[in-house]
Amino acid sequence: xxxxxxxxxxxxxxxxxxxxxxxxxxxxxxxxxxxxxxxxxxxxxxxxxxxxxxxxxxxxxxxxxxxxxxxxxxxxxxxx
Length: 80
Description:
2 helices, three-stranded mixed sheet, globular
């Protein structure tokens, strides 16, 4: 199982628990980029909760070798 698959296996249930849709997960160049959404849009509190939960899970499971940057965001206005 590759890194991206391990990350998805960790992140997907967290998003589900927080009532968020996991729109995209990308791991490239030491950056883990997670995009989440929900009906009506995602506010900063939801992004913060997701970031904290994912960060704790990554600390526990250590799915990425070495250093990485975690970015959690919404798809913004561009999503249709």
